[in-house]
Amino acid sequence: MILITGGTGLVGSHILLHLIESKNLRNGQIRAIYRDTDSIQKTKNLFAHYNKSTLFEAIEWFRADVTNVPLLEKAFEGIDCVYHCAAIISFDQKDEDKMRKINIEGTANIVNLSIANKITKLCYISSTAALGDLAPNETEVTEESQWNPDRSHNDYAISKYGAEMEIWRGQQEGLDVIIVNPGVIIGPGFTDQGSGLLFKRVKKGLAFYTTGITGFIAVTDVAYSCVYLMESEYKNEKYILIAENNSYKNILSAIADNLKVKRPSIAVNPIVLEVLWRLDLAVSFVFRKKRGFTKATARGAYSQVIFSNEKIKKALDKPLQNIEDYIKNNRFL
Prior knowledge:
Blueprint (H helix, E strand, L loop, with lengths): L1 E4 L4 H14 L6 E5 L2 H13 L10 E4 L5 H7 L5 E4 L11 H21 L4 E5 L29 H18 L4 E6 L1 E3 L9 H10 L2 E3 L2 E6 H13 L5 E5 L2 E4 H12 L6 E3 L1 H18 L7 H8 L7 H6 L7 H6 L5
Parallel strand pairs: 1-2, 1-4, 2-3, 4-5, 5-6, 6-10, 7-9, 8-12
Antiparallel strand pairs: 9-11
């Protein structure tokens, strides 16, 4: 039996769909953890988005939390392999403790129970945020890039890096593992988080774009890659999951074309972004509001980081989708 944590999120729900559809799984063969009943509806809506509502019934839902060990112990009963997708993503410093508890402590719990239950293989969905830093002689980030503790890293990156350390601890204790580090994941169904917010903002009429460059990948390719690697002989490896490095300008333009709205046309320079995150900090402090635009968000918007995808391209049995074509040829809202 397969266990999915984070089955009510973008990646977890697509892994559920891919597994059920490609492996003809039935109820009793795949279990997904959820924290509240309302969150299940998001996954159900996603299946309906793809006209696959009948496949939703194959999922055995189990109410649990990655920080609640007694409930997790019951969730692991009869499990053979695990896809660990559950995480909290935030760039607000107020969420630091929550991220450490869920992303690091929660992953440690998954690792410990995987070892105790003799799980055959564990796939951990990490992030490019947890990858190493560019050395002076490097031009692109690879799986071998070294994390430099003396460099500045945001709390989310630190929590995902800490989670990876728990995965490697499990590997040292005999657990077979796969770590994947996706870049910006583009996909439908979750407009209140991640790249889904880009679609929502462009739909409302986004006039501005930033000069940043980063790695992008379609969520369907993330799901396919995870399942392929788990069912292959590859083990105890990590893979950067990006289809290509591209600019935010190109991606936002492709989204605007997909939604049939005006493309963002005004470039925002780094100085303006630096001012904006400081203003947001002041407003948050004065009015006790949650951060809307953090330093990490601002610097990510104008940084130009190139990621290598050579390792995953060699491992897979088919090419990853061109991200602009993926946006052009699919429905998102």
